[in-house]
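Sequence in, structure out.
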Amino acid sequence: SKEIEAAANTEKKVEKAGYGYSKRM
């Protein structure tokens, strides 16, 4: 379950990073 949590956290980070990037554009 730790691996799943890590994957979910990574996905959230990517989502936030992509959102901030598109906002800057």
